[in-house]
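Sorry to interrupt, but I need a hand with the structure work. Could you write out one complete protein record for me, on any chain you like? Just paste the record in under my message, thanks.

. . .
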Amino acid sequence: MKKKYLFCTNAWFYLSELPLAFLLVVACRFNSTVDTLMGLIPLIVVLSAAMIFIFLYFFRMVVISYEEIKMLGLFSSRDKAIINKDKTLILTIRPGADLKIELFGNNGTPSLLSGLKDDPPMDIYLFRGKVIGRKRAAKSILRFFKMSEEDIVAAVGDFVMDKSDTPNVFFRDCELFTVTSEKIDDNREIRIKFKETI
């Protein structure tokens, strides 16, 4: 099953491991010079455990497949949602921020708030996450769903203002989904609405 992996953690978060790595190297180097029974082994174990904990704590990843979207990471929300017909994957490119990914739709069950069994299901946000990469990440997601490079550039690229000073809207109707891209304020919102379950 084909999947797209997108990192949620900036690499500079892991710079906090450098002091621990330095202390670990020093402890390993001078372990043989210590005369105590265990030497510096307890310090080496604690430093190694701290480095592993920091890595696991900050590690978060969004995984997209044709069937579902989910968050991976030991200390993440571990949310997941099924991608199928009539759901919309929303990519929001924000200046100076990460790419926001949301899945909007319903799972076919009535809203618990309505209390009425005959009420139609209400569309809600089933998944929310942020990944690093902004335009680069948005392009890779569109490539994952097999859009052409020309359409990807048009959907993600800068919009040209027309004579009426309103932003142009990109729209492409594909076989299994439609893609709409629009600039709203300083953000660019790309909506992938699934016409069929892939």
About this structure: The chain has a mean pLDDT of 85. Residues 84 and 161 are 34 Å apart (CA to CA). The first helix runs from residue 18 to 30.
